[in-house]
């Protein structure tokens, strides 16, 4: 595990530090305002959970609970204890727990959908509601979606409006079988809407899954970040020191 040390403070609630980029050996911040969703793919042990922990820790360090709320979906409990503050809207280690936690997020999203009374000006500057950015962090998405009815399917109707509603979906899953998983409605939805991608270590035989980059065998914690705003680049995921959180 790497430590990035002190970083510039108080970024917007839609930005989070992910790691160090190869281009300038400088901190890489992902912009969830430009692209509301992120998909993380890779083999077992490549550092997918570490990437989610890094994002969670930075969002909590940079924002008050009034600015950011997180729902952690964590069937293997790799994120257990990462957030123990008022930023946590729910922690779901099982489908049953998710069925209890998700409705709180859905209720907030319903209340933020613009009605006929919302003016064009309000739509432009997103001023018809106030409240925190909502992050749904899902580790081992293949476990969550693979048991029949996907418990996250109620989010599907809100994905096209994610930026307007302050919704951000972060999905991490193993790369094996990911090509077939791209037909899953949630996964297909975020990809069709132009999600960011972090392609971590995986077999080249898996084929191109994110952007135009074929998977490579990489050290743990390293991956290729794919966004619309910059060329693809290798990033080493880093966790902020506890004194910074």
UniProtKB/TrEMBL annotation:
One Gene Ontology term of the molecular function aspect: ATP binding
Highest taxon of source: Bacteria
Residues in FtsK domain copies: 25-205
Positions contributing to ATP binding: 42-49
Keywords attached to this entry: ATP-binding, Cell cycle, Cell division, Nucleotide-binding
Record keyword Cell cycle present: yes
InterPro entries assigned to the protein according to its UniProt record, in alphabetical order: FtsK_dom (IPR002543), P-loop_NTPase (IPR027417)
Protein name per the record: Cell division protein FtsK
Organism annotation: Mycolicibacterium fortuitum
Chain's gene name: eccCb1_1
């Amino acid at each position: 595990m790497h430590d990035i040390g002190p970083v510039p403070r108080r970024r917007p609630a839609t930005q989070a530090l992910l790691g160090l980029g190869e281009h300038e050996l400088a901190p890489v911040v992902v912009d969830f305002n430009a692209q509301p969703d992120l998909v993380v793919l890779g083999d077992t042990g490549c550092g997918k959970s570490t990437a989610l922990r890094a994002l969670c820790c930075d969002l909590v360090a940079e924002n008050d609970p009034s600015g950011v709320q997180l729902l952690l979906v964590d069937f293997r409990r790799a994120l257990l204890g990462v957030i123990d503050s008022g930023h946590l809207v729910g922690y779901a280690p099982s489908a049953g727990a998710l069925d209890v936690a998700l409705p709180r997020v859905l209720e907030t999203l319903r209340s933020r959908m613009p009605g006929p009374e919302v003016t064009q000006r309000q739509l432009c500057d997103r001023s018809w509601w106030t409240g925190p950015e909502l992050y749904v962090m899902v580790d081992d998405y293949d476990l969550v979606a693979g048991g029949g009815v996907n418990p996250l399917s109620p989010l599907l109707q809100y994905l096209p409006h994610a930026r307007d509603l302050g919704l951000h979906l972060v999905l991490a899953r193993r790369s094996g079988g990911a090509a077939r998983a791209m037909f899953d409605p949630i996964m297909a939805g975020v990809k069709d809407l132009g999600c960011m991608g972090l392609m971590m270590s995986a077999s080249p035989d898996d084929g191109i899954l994110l952007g135009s980059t074929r998977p490579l065998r990489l050290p743990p914690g390293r991956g290729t970040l794919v966004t619309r705003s910059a060329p693809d680049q290798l990033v080493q995921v880093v966790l902020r020191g506890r004194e910074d959180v």
